Amino acid sequence: STMKNLKIILVSILMFSGLYCNGQQRPVVSTYMFNGLLINPAYAGSLNLFSATVTNRNQWVNVDGAPNSQSVSAHTTWKENQVGTGLTIQRDQIGVHEQYSVYGSYAYKIRTNAGLLSMGLQGGFDSRSSNYSSLDWKDPSDPLNIDGTRFNPNVGAGLYFANKTFFVGLSVPYILQPKIFDITTISSDARESRYYYLNFGNVIELSKKIKLNPSFLLRMQQRANIGYDANINLIFSDIIYAGVSYRSGDAVVFIAQLVLNENFRVGYAFDTVTSAITGFTSGTHEIMLNYRKLIR
User: Fold this and answer.
1) What is the 3-state secondary structure (H, E, C) of the chain?
2) Which of 42, 75, 136, 238 could make an SS bond with 160 (beta carbons 3.0 to 4.6 A apart)?
3) Over 80: is that where the pLDDT of 64 sits?
4) Residue 213: C-alpha distances to residues 169, 206, 232, 276, 285 (Å)
């Protein structure tokens, strides 16, 4: 219907104005603190075991054309924990746009007296398809009314340091800045802005069974305001994780993770929207499942 198409166009405009002007090009999953490979290639192999994670995120429930994304990521360690490798596959849908991303990562680890320092690289590609013909165009000859697929290779790098009580990571996950439009009839030099992550936190032992885990993610993007996530988690007996995050200008997030056994853990996040779209949606749901296994 016309109203549904209007909603899809509105959501696309909102998302792209946020993605390319005042935020990030790629979705931020709320459970990233349980899956560091999604924001930093140097995280590959940092757990000194094999770890695989599946994540599903449904953003802005009840809004037609709202973003949803899925990811599968895995990483492991080699050469007596000196080298880590990882693979991340993501699918992101926003309105009429669908993007698949495939990235491999490599990390080299150096042991120091203070902790473990990892240097990481990643490489891969994004493939974005746009299905504009699904909309009702007032002017079908509009140059944007062209279905098509864009293929963009990209590379990234990161540093990650961790010991038993503290961690800090700095990453530039996508260094290249491809054009947003690749249509000959549109003269635009608009490009994806390069952005940077600074992530740090520590673990404070409150008692034998309770730990406090504050952390912070700073998102710096060229030609945009700085964004941040402030997180605090309580950890009970290393089995139950429960916490809350504040994402600047966007959402308050409630997070939980349950360790089922030595191999499986499940996580959940619920974002309560604090931005202008708050009256149109009940929020965002995200669920993750992690499998991990010690390497003998």
Assistant:
1) CHHHHHHHHHHHHHHHHHHHHCCCCCCCCCCHHHCHHHCCHHHCCCCCCEEEEEEEEECCCCCCCCCEEEEEEEEEEECCCCEEEEEEEEEEEECCEEEEEEEEEEEEEEECCCCEEEEEEEEEEEEEEECHHHCCCCCCCCCCCCCEEEEEEEEEEEEEEECCCEEEEEEECCCCCCECCCCCCCCCCCECCCEEEEEEEECEECCCCEEEEEEEEEEEECCCCCEEEEEEEEEECCCEEEEEEEECCCEEEEEEEEECCCCEEEEEEEEEECCHHHHHCCCEEEEEEEEEECCC
2) 42
3) no
4) 16, 10, 6, 30, 22
The pair of structure tokens assigned to 255 is 């997070």
Q: Rounded to whole angstroms, how far apart are CA atoms 41 and 37?
A: 6
Structure tokens at 235: 């950890």
State the CB neighbour count (10 A cutoff) for residue 233.
21
Tell me the pLDDT of the chain averaged across its residues.
82
**Per-residue model confidence (pLDDT) at position 277:** 53
User: Could you tell me which residues are beta bridge partners of residue 72?
Assistant: 54, 89
pTM recorded for the entire structure: 0.81
Burial class (CB in 10 A: 0-12, 13-18, 19+), 187: exposed
Q: Is the dihedral of CA 114, 292, 202, 84 positive or negative?
A: positive
pLDDT attached to residue 96: 73
